[in-house]
Design goal:
Radius of gyration: 15 Å
Number of strands: 8
Order of helices and strands: EHEEEEHEEE
Organism: Niastella koreensis
CATH superfamily: 2,3-Dihydroxybiphenyl 1,2-Dioxygenase, domain 1
Largest sheet: 4 strands, mixed
Strand content: 35-45%
InterPro entries: Anthracycline_SecMetBiosynth, Glyas_Bleomycin-R_OHBP_Dase, Glyas_Fos-R_dOase_dom, VOC_core
Number of helices: 2
CATH class: Alpha Beta
Protein name: Glyoxalase
Shape: globular
Length: 128
């Protein structure tokens, strides 16, 4: 059995609560706040993704920390979706923006690009 090469991601935020609400609304998933107790991380906010309604594992977190800023130009993460159209339909209502609509990649499935409320560029990918 092959494992995914990418096993964790962090999406950086400037408005932590706004970002959490965006991801909850678009992906219908829960996020769990993880308290950061050390003095070194006193300004850090961290929330882990839980499985969404489609039961996809989202192995990562939303993070607010002074050392890393959100925005286009960083790492591009693609979220697996059952069918991209559903998530795309919730993006603008949740405060995001559709950057590239659903694109057919033939035998490799479909992708789309969206911008979250923190100006991060993220991808969506589905088989159909």
């Amino acid at each position: 059995m092959m494992k995914n090469v990418i096993n964790w991601f962090e999406i950086y935020t400037s408005d932590f609560n706004r970002a959490k609400q965006f991801y909850k609304d678009v992906f219908k998933c829960d996020l769990i706040d993880i308290p950061m107790n050390s003095d070194r991380h006193s300004q850090m906010q961290y929330a882990l993704f839980r499985k969404n309604e489609n039961k996809f594992d989202l192995n990562g977190a939303l993070v607010k920390i002074d050392e890393a800023k959100p925005g286009i130009g960083g790492t591009l993460v693609y979220f697996a979706t059952e069918e991209i159209t559903a998530e795309l339909g919730r993006v603008e209502t949740a405060g995001g923006k559709i950057i590239r609509p659903k694109l057919d990649l033939g035998e490799f499935g479909f992708i789309a690009l969206i911008q979250d409320t923190e100006t991060n560029l993220i991808g969506l990918r589905s088989e159909k």
